[in-house]
Amino acid sequence: MPHPGCRPVGRCSADRSERAVSLKFKLEAISKLARSFSQKPRLSLQVLRNLEESVRGSVYSGAWPCGADRQPNPEKADEHSIDSANPLREYFDSHKTGRGIWKWNHYFEIYHRHFSKFMGREVHVVEVGIFSGGSLDMWKEYFGPRCHVYGIDIEPACKTYEDERTRIFVGDQSDRAFWKDFRNQVRSVDILIDDGGHLPEQQIATLEEMLPHLRPGGVYLCEDIHNLHNPFAAYVGGLVNGINAVHKEGVPTGFQSDIHSVHLYPYVAVIEKNECPRKELIAPRHGTEWQPFL
Prior knowledge:
By secondary structure, the protein is α/β, with parallel strands linked by helices. The protein folds into two domains: 11-46; 87-273, Rossmann fold, CATH 3.40.50. The chain contains eleven helices and seven strands. It has helices spanning 9-39, 41-49, 51-62, 79-83, 87-94, 107-115, 134-143, 176-185, 200-210, 231-244, 254-258; strands at 123-128, 147-153, 166-170, 191-194, 219-222, 259-265, 268-273. It has a seven-stranded mixed sheet with strand order 3-2-1-4-5-7-6, sandwiched between helices. Helix 1 packs across helix 2 (41-49) and helix 8 (176-185) packs parallel to helix 9. The longest helix has 31 residues, at 9-39. The chain is globular and about 65 Å long.
């Protein structure tokens, strides 16, 4: 029996291991920060200037009171009724056997909000991370007979899901050479759904390689962006800065010209492209009566 106040040897070893892991992450963070300053010093300083507000927003959202005891708007139906007209939700709820589909419940409203414009049209859908293959059939049912699906997975056995409207590509989503080859084979993409490895570098590589490749009006959606201070969420925050940038008066940046909007939901980020390039960002005045100080 160990002496009072002393910890077992096993516990000491575990503590040392935990400290080593913690030190490793701290050193990696310092290295990333130093690399950022050396490569982009001005942008890095701007991010640091806004650090206080970023922390303040995190604290505010974390302290938000629980809304479970609040009364819903009596004029609105409950969440299940609102979602009952969603074909994706209906498909998922009725899918009891066959290839598995594993989704967070609130994803179906997000899908339908951003994907419904493609229903019945010729649409080319890429899904990264296809697991048991059930969602491949769900997309084809939802979009209709003119839908073409391209599944991507690192597991070669997923090739078995191929059919006349489904092509399967086996590869690593963090491999930019893989994406180059994919783009050469699949010239048209309207929707990309990233449900792959969920590691930030995988998600960033996929976005950077495929967002420019999406056709005008295309939709990029990344799932399962979990936990506080997620590096990919921080990356998306940098994209939001690009949306808000002021380049020249009335003249959009290249990013603003092509990108319509960035949407954030619990665990999900959605980026929509413009149907036509945005030519200007102007704020005209209409009217004849103005306050003298304006």
